[in-house]
Amino acid sequence: MSSDQMPTDPLPTDEQRVALCEMLSFALVEIRHLAWSGEANRAGELADVFHELPRQMHGWDEFSWDQLRESIDSYQDRYKDQFSIYNFRSLLDRVSLDSARVDNGNGHSS
Q1: Average pLDDT for residues 7-21, to the nearest whole number?
Q2: What integer pLDDT is reported at residue 8 of this predicted model?
Q3: Which of 15, 45, 78, 83 could be 100's S-S partner, Cβ–Cβ 3.0 to 4.6 Å?
Q4: Residue range 59-69: average pLDDT?
Q5: Separation between Cα atoms, residue 26 and residue 103, nearest integer Å
Q6: Domain segments of the chain as ranges
Q7: Does residue 94 come out as left (phi exceeding 0), alpha (psi in the -120 to 50 range) or beta?
Q8: Range 7-19 average pLDDT
Q9: What is residue 103's three-state secondary structure?
Q10: Rounded-to-integer distance, Cα 79 and Cα 44, Å
């Protein structure tokens, strides 16, 4: 492993994968909203944050919580002054060992 690569973490648990899938679903909703609003570049950037997640969380590629967090942080920091349906940083914080569902930020689980 080169010095610029993140270490690989253990794969997410089944419960964490469910929560991560829900985050991906929320990202797709936001991408659709951005596309309909004429913000194709921003939609593409959000897609870049999540597009490898299904492969990574199932072990088909290296998985790193830190890398996922850095990608989400970078996206959210870049667009911090613009409307977002979801706060992906907050959603990632809610993924835990005993959490099978992610609160969508509106006080309701999906």
Answers
A1: 90
A2: 81
A3: 15
A4: 91
A5: 11
A6: 21-93
A7: alpha
A8: 89
A9: strand
A10: 13
- Based on C-alpha coordinates, what's the Rg of the chain? 14
CA angle 21, 81, 105 (to 5 degrees): 35
3-state secondary structure 17-73: HHHHHHHHHHHHHHHHHHHHCCCHHHHHHHHHHHCCHHHHHCCCCCCCHHHHHHHHH
Give the Cα separation of 25 and 10 in Å (integer).
23
For residue 91, report the phi and psi dihedrals to the nearest 5 degrees: -60, -40
What gap in Å lies between CA 104 and CA 86, rounded to an integer?
A: 7
Closest listed residue to residue 88, CA positions, set 46, 42, 34, 38: 46
What's the token pair of residue 38? 């004429």
Collapsing DSSP states into helix, strand and coil, what is residue 14?
helix
Q: Which residue type is seen at 94?
A: R
